[in-house]
Amino acid sequence: MKRESLIILRRTFLILTVLFIYIWAFIGLPNIELKETSIEIVSAIISGLFQPDWGYVYDPAGEDLLRGLLDTVAIALLGTFIAGILCIPFSFMAANNIVKTKAIVGTNKFMLSFIRVFPDIVLALLFIKAVGPGAFAGVLALGIGAVGMLGKLISDSIEGIDLSAREALVATGANPIKIFMFAVVPQVLPNFFSFILYRFEVNVRAATVLGVIGAGGIGTPLIFALSVRDWERVGIILLGIIVMITLIDMISGKIRSRLT
Amino acid sequence: MDILGKTTYGEGRKAVNDLFSDGLLFTTLTKVGKRLIQFKNVSKIYPNGTIGLKNINLQIEDGEFVVIVGLSGAGKSTLLRSVNRLIEISEGEISIHGESITKAKGNELYRIRRDIGMIFQNFNLVKRSSVMRNVLSGRVGYHSTLRMILGLFPKQDKELAIEALKRVNLVEKAYVRADQLSGGQQQRVSIARALAQEAKIVLADEPVASLDPLTTKQVMEDLLRINQELNITMIVNLHSIDLAREYATRIIGLKDGEVVFDGPVIEATNDTFTSIYGQDMRKNEMKRAAK
Amino acid sequence: MDILGKTTYGEGRKAVNDLFSDGLLFTTLTKVGKRLIQFKNVSKIYPNGTIGLKNINLQIEDGEFVVIVGLSGAGKSTLLRSVNRLIEISEGEISIHGESITKAKGNELYRIRRDIGMIFQNFNLVKRSSVMRNVLSGRVGYHSTLRMILGLFPKQDKELAIEALKRVNLVEKAYVRADQLSGGQQQRVSIARALAQEAKIVLADEPVASLDPLTTKQVMEDLLRINQELNITMIVNLHSIDLAREYATRIIGLKDGEVVFDGPVIEATNDTFTSIYGQDMRKNEMKRAAK
Amino acid sequence: MNTIEKEQTDHIPSPPSKMKPIFTAMLVLVLVLGSGWQIGFSFTELLKGLPNMWDLVVQLVPPDLAYFQVITSPMLETIRMAVIGTTFGGLLAFPLAMLAARNVFFLSIITGPARFLLNLIRTLPELLLAALFVAIFGIGTIPGIFALMFFSLGIIAKLFYESVESIDPGPMEAMTAVGANKLKWIMFGVVPQVMAPFMSFFLYAFEINIRAAAVLGLVGAGGIGLFYEQTLGFFDYAKTSSIIVYTLGVVLLIDYLSTKIREKLI
Amino acid sequence: ACGNDGEGASSTENEDAENQEETNEDTEVQEENDGEELEELKVQFVPSQNADTLEAKAKPLEDLLSNELGIPVTVSVSTDYNTIVEAMKSDQVDVGFLPPTAYVLAHEQVAADVILQAQRFGVHDDGSATEELVDSYKSIFIVKADSDINSIEDLKGKKIGYQNVTSSAGFVWPAATLMEAGIHPLNDVESVTLKGHDQAVIALLNGDIDAAVTFQDARNVVVSDYENVFEDTKILEFTEDIPNDTIAVRPAISDEMKEAITQAFIAIGQDEEGQEIIRDIYSHEGYVESQDSNFDIVREYEEKVSNEVQ
Ligand SMILES: Nc1ncnc2c1ncn2[C@@H]1O[C@H](COP(=O)(O)OP(=O)(O)OP(=O)(O)O)[C@@H](O)[C@H]1O
Ligand SMILES: Nc1ncnc2c1ncn2[C@@H]1O[C@H](COP(=O)(O)OP(=O)(O)OP(=O)(O)O)[C@@H](O)[C@H]1O
Ligand SMILES: [Mg+2]
Ligand SMILES: [Mg+2]
């Protein structure tokens, strides 16, 4: 009875906290009003986007859309690969249904939070100091930066898996690593790949970091075009990115269906 | 006990049962026998307050074929799972061959568990993996962690797995994903996994629940054979009284988490089962008779 | 057929079976009866190439208690699931009360399905939800979509759900999460869900596989009672020949996706079962005899 | 007869060809190595440069704790916008993700456009969203909330539909069998299974909105992003790290709340 | 010309300090055995904010410089000057294109020495370019054309859109102008930080702010999206001259190398082909030699403003 009332108390507290946060957030919200200039500017932007600057697609001297996309893919691919490998031990050890020691789980969760909180730009700075500006630094920054996100998402999804298969492995006397390989991996593999591919996509779009880092790729021209409001240029770059991401989606779908 | 176990086979089972027909003799024998699995004052209370087991004291000898019977929810699965510590008991201690599994840790615990095969009530297959991989997973206890991370099973293991699948008539599905199997086929994969494990004790939680009579017979014969030929101890939860009578050397009756019967098959009369399954059964029968 | 169905009960079943003892009479009767479920040249080939069903032609009448038997993997579940189109058949047509479910769409399909209850071999419970909610989910076909999105079940539904849980002896677990139940308890939840659905046809895929003899009896009696008192058609997959004999009015034997036997219980002799379960059974018995 | 049967039962199927996975792995390997070569990956260079990194790390500690006072109010402002933006983003993401999940809607006529829309939403760069929203709503809180909403929608929906696609089909099957229409089917067969991942993604998006809400700066809504820029611009690394510490505190708090909420759902 | 005068004046004022600093550096360079010779030149540039066209291209400059210097050159583009400075500090970048404020901060950290300054065409009040080459530009206060704000003093209590506080044109110079008029740039007005001079103009057109500070003339960026931007807004005030972008080198580089780099850039600016390239890419017209003292004005402003701000 006492335990139950404690649970109710804690639940009420949780609900009240969330409720309070919402009330606080919505209080003092200004009214939405549309600006007079909006039609003119938005239509200029949209019409610009829909008249992409085809001339930028290919330029014999290099430094065109195709080259930018290629560089971006190379950086994103390698960055994702590094992150994909580094995140595995973290996600495993931060899942509270795999590792039972609270301290280990807690430490790993903390580490993941810390990596996530660490701003991309500071990470970029660190690697620029180490290896100089350029694609290499970009790969390292993306590779390390993504560990926080992947580790969290994957460990969360490990925590939600069906444990019955795991039981069978426990019963055969498998140690945690073997259990992980045989009972957990096959179940989280689809999620793992989908997170990895999502991260790959994020990395392709990580224009800001790559722009800061001088890594080349499509990010810097995109930022430049946006800041001087060259919508035709923005349009063609976005088109390029969308086409590329769609292609990657298709290819990765094929790969995924093979691996899982 | 070992020798006795080996000489009995098939119909010979009856003779062995006769030997134990005297309850007193039975208990005396077990006291001097090699105590394989020992339950001392074991209780289990689930976090939500349900009582799973209540002060269980049992000893099971090498080579026995124990069948556990009881109503749904009586605690049969709980008892079985506490043997290899799939669930942590709340009180008491369980030891296997003199080693306390309750206190075992790390590699010691893994080794003890490796020697205990388990067939699960709800199969516990990795649905996304192939049948073969599910069966091979019974072998992981034998190899180094690194090897297992790379998924490198020796050739013998694969042959062993195929062998186990043959025994349950499922070899043609070896490379099919487990979720594409029928219910009975899934159960057979789970049995093959336990066979491939080459354990010294096998815990079987309703191993034939989803099987047709033919496969049931095959599986039970298989369990009996490995019990007798390899002197492997069997602890099996069964719902079928007929099967229990046919294969067991000893029957343990559970009710509400307590042992209400424990003795050789011969002692388990119809009245015994009636008392295990509670008064309801009698009431129910009376009702029907009244109509 | 209705009247006959209602007068038979329990032991009375035997009398009915006697009525049908002549195979000819049986077929004649079914031809004039109300054809409830009709299979026309139904085949099913799974995407991986496995043949599930091969050219099935069947008709099942109102109020029958059909038991389907067959080896594991014979296609029993596939047959059952094709009735309410849980799997799309590859060829042929299935109609229910003259309406083709194969061609039905949208609300029509939902309505047909609402009138068909199903008990699943592997329970298919939402493990994270409470028992009550799982049972109530059998009622969603009766209410407006909006109401269901908000999860507002009328009071009668809740009473109905409690009633269904009482029938399977599980009312004390009503507010427990489904994953905290024993195997047999989960199976009973799945039965309660089908009972709460108040369907006109019940498809049961091994409804008693994980149940102890007492509960098995209760559940089978329940199925029989609703079959007889409410004239609800039952199609049940069973592995136990004894149960099939005790409760069925008609037995259908499947082998490798084909109907190899179809007739009243009385016609299903031991030889029939032997042929359904294939030569292996005999071989197996011979082997044992040889030893 | 006997022999035929024997062949049938004893026939051991050959294992599936390993070529496909090996080929795929080789392809990935080639791509990785190729990219590594293209961008000039070098471990020695990295090792050589590590001491340089240390220079910066030294400047980051200890954090300037007095700076907390300055960033508290922008942080609260950020949280406030993130709460609203993420909530609306999540509310939109839920149905959109359902439409995009192939095991919920089987027709590519439905999932295709839904996925395309989601791809598009994720592709739009923050700067472009900012340009649009500032033009439409002016500067301040409102465009900030809209930007965060868009952003959350993209993240949550994408992650969510993929995880919906990997749920247990059993309960869905049961709902089909009781004759539930699509909405009821989703409510009772899908939703109970996916609430936990949904909350996880929702809270994750919330967290991103708080720690990386640079877009707020772009629409003149302030936010903590501006302060990173400022402190880095002045090479005032102690302050930068104090922002990191502060954000970490907030994120850990969210993490704690999120675990508590998820515990209720798993 | 006006800007040059100002800078000359300030350099005389600070002569002593400056001399001392220079001697310090000289000894430092000498200690390092006449500085490093380079086998490869690494150049990075950050586009200046005061440009209305930009290209993220590096190759053309690479080729030009490598032709002039006879060693391989790599050029990279970054969007943030902080990273250049850090890279120069750890010897990862040799030559950086830095905006004035960034240069001053970099010099403070002994990361960069200025060698050159970019030249551009001046800007008429209507936003069009002049014929005259200058090495400085101005920032402007703009308000709506129909606004009743007619002088700097009227800005008191009004809502002003700034850029980040490290921005020369978007904050430092305008803030100094305000302070001269007796208005505290943060306390006496309602300040809003915006990202991008174009956004500032749009926010002004929208009426979200009463005045915007931008480089002269940022309205050119917006004119394609909002045709009447020049009619609908007016310039309220100009700031003092802001030095153009610098080209700065790592202090440790040998004097000969520095000289070679300097001459290479000047040559590129004078070469017809080279000029076209630097114009297209960086909107530079050429380069003139410069020295650290030219940036004392920046330090002065920086100090003045940052004292008030922090
Ligand atoms: N989803 C699926 N994909 C491919 N093959 C399947 C699938 N489901 C079932 N099968 C195959 O179809 C055949 C018939 O399966 P079904 O489930 O109907 O058997 P069953 O008679 O119900 O057997 P059991 O008694 O074991 O439940 C089996 O060989 C099975 O492997
Ligand atoms: N994880 C759990 N949490 C809470 N209670 C549980 C849990 N598992 C089982 N129980 C409860 O413990 C009791 C015993 O369960 P157990 O699984 O041992 O029964 P069983 O004898 O195997 O029944 P069945 O024949 O139905 O499988 C039941 O009342 C069940 O509801
Ligand atoms: Mg059980
Ligand atoms: Mg089946």
From TrEMBL, chain A:
Domain named ABC transmembrane type-1: which ranges?
Answer: 69-252
Say yes or no: keyword Ribosomal protein present: no
Which chain regions cross the lipid bilayer?
Answer: 12-29, 73-99, 120-147, 179-200, 207-228, 234-252
Q: What are the entry keywords?
A: Membrane, Transmembrane, Transmembrane helix, Transport
Membrane topology category:
Multi-pass membrane protein
Name the predominant localization. other
> Which cell locations does it reside in?
Cell envelope; Cell membrane; Membrane
Q: By its UniProt entry, which SUPFAM superfamilies does this protein fall under?
A: MetI-like
MF (Gene Ontology): ABC-type phosphonate transporter activity
Q: Per the record, GO CC terms? A: cell envelope; plasma membrane
Q: Which domain of life is it from?
A: Bacteria
* Gene3D superfamilies in alphabetical order: MetI-like
Which InterPro entries did the record assign? MetI-like, MetI-like_sf, PhnE/PtxC
Q: Which PANTHER family match?
A: ABC TRANSPORTER, PERMEASE PROTEIN CC0363, PUTATIVE-RELATED, PHOSPHONATES TRANSPORT SYSTEM PERMEASE PROTEIN
Assigned protein family: Belongs to the binding-protein-dependent transport system permease family.
Query: Under what name is this protein listed?
Result: Phosphonate transport system permease protein
Q: Which organism is it from?
A: Pseudogracilibacillus auburnensis
UniProtKB/TrEMBL annotation, chains B, C:
What GO CC annotations are associated with the protein? Answer: membrane
Keyword Transmembrane carried by entry:
no
Q: Which organism is it from?
A: Pseudogracilibacillus auburnensis
Family matches, as SMART domains: AAA
Under the heading PROSITE patterns, the entry gives: ABC_TRANSPORTER_1, ABC_TRANSPORTER_2
What are the residue boundaries of the ABC transporter domain, all occurrences included? 37-281
Q: Which InterPro entries match?
A: AAA+_ATPase, ABC_transporter-like_ATP-bd, ABC_transporter-like_CS, ABC_transpr_PhnC, MetN_ABC_transporter-like, P-loop_NTPase
Q: What is this protein called?
A: Phosphonate transport system ATP-binding protein
From TrEMBL, chain D:
The alphabetical list of record keywords is: Cell membrane, Membrane, Transmembrane, Transmembrane helix, Transport
Which membrane topology term applies here? Multi-pass membrane protein
Q: Name one GO cellular component term.
A: plasma membrane
Query: Is NADP set as a keyword in this record?
Result: no
Origin species, per record, is Pseudogracilibacillus auburnensis
Which residues are in the ABC transmembrane type-1 domain?
A: 75-258
Keyword check for Cell membrane: yes
Family the UniProt entry places it in = Belongs to the binding-protein-dependent transport system permease family.
What is the protein named? Phosphonate transport system permease protein
Top-level taxon: Bacteria
Its Gene Ontology molecular function terms?
Answer: ABC-type phosphonate transporter activity
InterPro entries linked to this entry:
MetI-like, MetI-like_sf, PhnE/PtxC
